[in-house]
Design goal:
Helix content is 28%, strand content 29%. The chain is an alpha+beta fold. The chain has 2 domains: 229 residues, 3-Layer(aba) Sandwich (Aminopeptidase); 105 residues, 2-Layer Sandwich (Alpha-Beta Plaits). A 6-stranded mixed sheet has the order 1-2-6-3-7-19. The two termini are 40 Å apart.
Amino acid sequence: MTHPPLDPVELTRDLVKIDSPTGEEGRLGEFLAALLERLGLRVIRQPVNPGRFNVFGFREPPLVVLSTHMDVVPPSLPVREDEFTLYGRGACDAKGIAAAQIAAAERLAQQGERRVGLLFVVGEEQTADGARAAAALEPKGRFVVNGEPTENRLALGTKGILRLQLAARGRAAHSAYPEEGQSAIEPMLDALDRIRRLPLPADGVLGDCTLNIGTIHGGVRGNVIPDSCTAEVVIRTVTETGELLTAVQRAAGDSVQVTVTLDSPPMRLRGLPGFETTVVKFGTDLPWLAPWGERFLIGPGSIRVAHTDHEHVAKEALREGQRCYERMVRMLLETSASQSGRINSR
């Protein structure tokens, strides 16, 4: 059955209308699964935890899998547009990418190429639980093209991410009698000050390691000695994290507990002829997609507007993203064929 060509702009508009913050991806997953089934793909809904599942679609056992994530950061932003640009949460990170990938796979199928899979996962913005779970899916291919906003340039490297949860405990008391309590906020402030002053490593390709104190929560009222305080620290890494984590734990001291909630390593990737290249500073699901074959990273949109209150993507960038995915798939399939030929001739 032949379907009319998919417009990635129209599909992006539909996807952005479905709010899907991390942990609440179910409605978007159902929409994508139903769409792929209508297009004639076999679809696997892989449960990750209640109400959340990965979506994996394919026509034949794939050699190339196009993948991105379904979740977005809060808050929700309504979809709007002008002649050239589409705005809304997920427009570039990463619903526009999903739309470009689906449109590319459908165009290739209409041209007779059915060895392309589509994998959409939950949880990328937090713990990568979807990508981790996807390791159990079959059939896998030889190549996976992960989608993140790289301005349609092929990434030669990505920074890693070390996400830390810090916690301090104290003893509540009336603030008029501080000697009867113990503040949890004060040791946290001291620990964070020491942590932010740590020397951080650098890499000649990936650049500087950076640190962000993203959240601090503690206390109930100004006239109560706070008995608890938590903070979240995210470090964009360019080297292995063992020595860095040890330094953070020492800087935190005995009064602050440090828990690792995500440790995703930096990566070096291969380029392909004819594609512009870049190096990106953000983390991705790629470390957890190793079972899916050789990994690549490319997608429409700019990371500089992702997670902002003006997230957007150029409509032409979405169409160019579709063309990039089509071109990459053909190139990788040719690579696979030549590799098979060399093996069979031995």
